[in-house]
Amino acid sequence: MNPTSYSPDTFGTYLSNPENKCSGIDLSSATVLEVLDAYRAFRRTLNPSYSNDAIVRKVRQLEKEFSCTLMPAQITDIFHANFIQWAHENGNCYSTIKMYCNQLKAALVWASRHGCLLSQTYNVYEVPRYFKSRVALSQDEISHIAHFDVSKISRRPQYRRNMERVRDMFVLLCNLGQRFSDISRISPGNMFRIIQKKTGNKAIVDIDKYSIVPKLTYSILKKYNFCSPYRSTVSNYDKYLHILLQHIGEEFDDIIVTEVKAGGTIVRTEHHKWELCTSHTGRRTFISYNVMRCPTEAEVRKCSGHKSTKTFERYITFDED
């Protein structure tokens, strides 16, 4: 029916004809693999490059090894407890297992709206604590940094002013989600629309909608006349960021165990959390925070300036607590 030739009679005839009614999606008897395939097809209507191949391969591996067909109702707390151990024994580090669990959860939540029956305990599980060399911070940690009183540092005023600028710069990095090189170039005329220096991509950030703490973001921007709080090299900035986080102490002194797969074995090393924080942690924090609350990945990629989903997903670091 041509919308430009609307008439009540024609529209009424269309609506009364059963053949014109959409049957919708029925996943009431779908297997987990069928759910994952349907979810991928749905996501690709929004983002053609979306992929969940990793979890699909893992489920196929599990079904082959145990000669079974996995159904959504079997995804319970018991399943997760065993799945996590099984995947880890098969060489997957906990960060990868966390990704599997979250991809599975996202597909099942979506499928439940289309008739898929879930166990009441499908979402009751705990992935063992893991830490990667790339970390993202929580909203509380960002607030802790933002409200740290640099006047408590027993050093010269010039040193304290420098720490204040380092602090404010990091809060902006977390709230605007851009690279250090791009935040260094912001001005009153380009703070919402940034042409990224590294890629030439355009990033558009709606502060009110996507900043972790919008009020704090505006406060810092006004403080520096909508320009960058810190202008220097990124290596120099990272050095002073580490010093600032050591001054703050507490959670940033926590020991982090990183896992790296080398030669078929998982090598674990220990670091203080502040050692793993860099200017890029702000960008990772912004993306990880928004990807969990925005309805589509495309919204977040519009802010971050990512054209590729594959590159974008490297920034997603889930909170393990």
Radius of gyration: 24 Å
The number of helical segments is 14
On the 0 to 100 scale, the average pLDDT is 83
Query: Structural class, from secondary structure content?
Result: mainly alpha
Give a count of the beta strands, DSSP E runs of length 2 or more: 4
As a percent range, the share of helical residues equals 40-55%
Question: In angstroms, what separates the terminal alpha carbons?
Answer: 53 Å
- In the predicted model, the low-confidence regions spanning at least 5 consecutive residues are none
What is the N-to-C succession of helices and strands? HHHHHHHHEEHHHEEHHH
> How much strand?
5-15%
> What is the overall shape?
globular
Strand order of the largest sheet: 1-2
Largest sheet: 2 strands, antiparallel
